[in-house]
Amino acid sequence: MGKLIKAELYRTKKVNGFWVFALFIFLFMAAVPFVASEKADSAETFFAGSMSMLAIGAMLIALMASYIVGRGYHHRTCMYEVMAGNSPMRIILSKLLSIALPIALIVYVAHLIGLGIACTMSSEGLSDVLVREPLFFLTLLRYTSFGVLLTMCVKSLLGPGLAYVRLLVESIALIVISAATGMNLDENTFNADLVVSNTTSTVVNTAFLSQQGVLLTTPMSSSVVWQSVGGFVLELLLWGGIAYFIYAKKDY
After folding, report:
1. Left, alpha or beta for 123 (phi > 0: left; psi -120 to 50: alpha)?
2. Which of 10, 65, 223, 243 is the least buried, fewest Cβ under 10 Å from its Cβ?
3. Closest to 88 measured CA to CA, from 249, 252, 248
4. In sequence order, what are the residues at sequence separation of 6 or more whose Cβ sits closer than 8 angstroms to the Cβ of residue 184?
């Protein structure tokens, strides 16, 4: 496993534009929430700004993770992992640990830096924000894991395109739901109602990637935790299961 991860990290560092893309995402996640909140003058407003921009940021990191994996298939470097006799589970875990996890960490560190800057202005709402931080990181990891696993399923550079379509469909679904239920996407009540008051909405929120501001729900509830954790597990089981089946059947 260690050799697989080391080799994957080495290839990732050689990807053209990786560091430029990483720097762009880093600055985006650290700075944009200030613009989104007009003035992120406290921990509370900064976190709200971070979540409001999660849809765009998550699309970027999912596409980034997907592109890195897809490039390996495009240049057929992934074949060496199979030829070396590695099991499907080892290959899947190595890519999650060497691609999905580092990208999520880069974005999360950028977020924490922005949060720290906001706290120098005011620590208002900090205790409430800190409770939600682990779930925020889990949401980021869910996006990057989705990008990695989806591309492993299609085994080509089609992965980023399919990831984009998936996230685009999610955004459209949210608009349809809001129109059907009469809820305003711009109102905080939409987030709370979507999470706790409607069974159908709860299922939809768990199945999708939680970009609709579920972590802004006040007060923090066990429903939010279960949906965030449950959605992450479902994502891994769905796409990870398909990838494992493809590799186990030696369909590569």
Report:
1. alpha
2. 10
3. 248
4. 178, 190
Buried b (16+ CB within 10 A) or exposed e, 123-147: eebbeebeebeebbbbbbbbbbbbb
Question: What are 190-204's pLDDT values in tens digits?
Answer: 343 444 445 555 666
Q: Enter the tokens of residue 82.
A: 């199979």
Place of tokens 């260690």: 2
Q: How many CA atoms lie within 13 A of 128 on its CB side?
A: 17
User: Is 148 within 8 Å of 66 (Cβ atoms)?
Assistant: yes
Integer CA distances (angstroms), 75 to 15, 59, 78, 146, 165, in order: 11, 24, 8, 21, 24
Residues in Cβ contact with 100 at an 8 Å cutoff, skipping those fewer than 6 apart: 65, 141, 144, 145, 147, 148
Q: What is the pLDDT of residues 41-94, one digit of tens each?
A: 888 888 888 877 776 777 788 888 888 888 877 777 777 666 667 788 888 888
Reduced to 3 states (helix: H, G, I; strand: E, B; else coil), residue 17 is coil
CA nearest 70: which of 150, 1, 16?
150
DSSP string, 152-164: HHHTSTHHHHHHH
Minimal CA–CA distance to 140: which of 102, 181, 85?
102
Token digits of residue 241: 């299961």
Q: Give residues with Cβ within 8 angstroms of 16, minimum separation 6.
A: none
Report the predicted TM-score, pTM, of the whole model to 2 decimal places.
Answer: 0.82
Extract long-range pairs of 160-167: CB within 8 Å, 24+ residues apart: 160/63, 160/66, 160/67, 160/70, 162/66, 163/62, 163/63, 163/66, 164/59, 164/63, 167/55, 167/58, 167/59, 167/62, 167/209, 167/211
| Non-local CB neighbours of 22 within 8 Å, separated by 6+ positions | 64, 103, 106
Q: What is the DSSP letter of 116?
A: H
